[in-house]
Automatic annotation (TrEMBL):
It comes from Anaeromyces robustus. It is a multi-pass membrane protein. This is G-protein coupled receptors family 3 profile domain-containing protein. The chain crosses the membrane at residues 7-31, 83-102, 126-151, 163-187, 193-217. The keyword ATP-binding does not apply. InterPro entries: GPCR_3_C. One of its GO terms (cellular component) is membrane. Residues 18-224 form the G-protein coupled receptors family 3 profile domain. It is found in: Membrane. One of its GO terms (molecular function) is G protein-coupled receptor activity. It holds the Pfam family 7tm_3. It comes from the Eukaryota. Keywords: Membrane, Transmembrane, Transmembrane helix.
Amino acid sequence: MKKLEHLFCFLSKPSWVILMIGIIMILSSGYTNFGIITNINCHIRNICISIGFTLIYIPILHKLIINFPDENKYSIWIKKHKYFFILIFILIDFILLGITLMKSHGVKTVTTNKGEKFQICHTDNILIKIILIIILTYKCIIILTLSILIFMEWNITETFYDIRFIMTSIYINIISFVLILIINSFININNHILYFIIKESLIYITSIINYILLYIIKIILPVLIKKDETTEIIEKIRVYESFLENAETQTTELTVSNINTIKTKNSNSSSVPHSILSKILNYHERT
């Protein structure tokens, strides 16, 4: 085990445990679709998915914040209060989900073309809908924050592969969520078996991919790629990304020069956003 410890230095041991519990919770949410669907099943599903997401990505968010190139009072405080930082997000989940438990979630009965009936989680309660929208917005803010930090820390050598695997994991989760949202909102599936297979497959595949990208890949990658080859690959990726960025920069500069007159008129109002964007790009280019 000691030989493998350096492969998992991105997070501390407790953080890896928290992350794995999060993956297991999301995986467990699939079991709420077995048997008769009740209000309790629907509430448990929401709890598993929401808290599972928090347990996976908040330890990563914590690491990205304290790994920020320039230390500041926020990163220092978060570094000193790691578990309190994680607990804040878990408490937010518990408070919001606790409010939904005060109301009956609701179950919808779907009748197939053959006359068979099956239940799915569906709510018409306004309060629950509002809380679920708040939870969704809150998770989107977390994803956005993670994405910005990942972009800013994209070229840091120590976390080069970790950053890319995390970003891939986020992409997979976004795609999975969008597919589930489309299925629930826009596609009317009257086949119980097909509905069950699609929903379960998305949950299990997403959980397994998260497990591979965030954990298993760290064991496999060093076996496939030697240390000197890893450095060479990183350099090649950087050269390629630098080429793309330079091409985009040249295109942007041509566009900017054409509208420079318009920008000068609005320089006062746009100086702050431009300054923030410049800082983000500056961090992105660091190694």
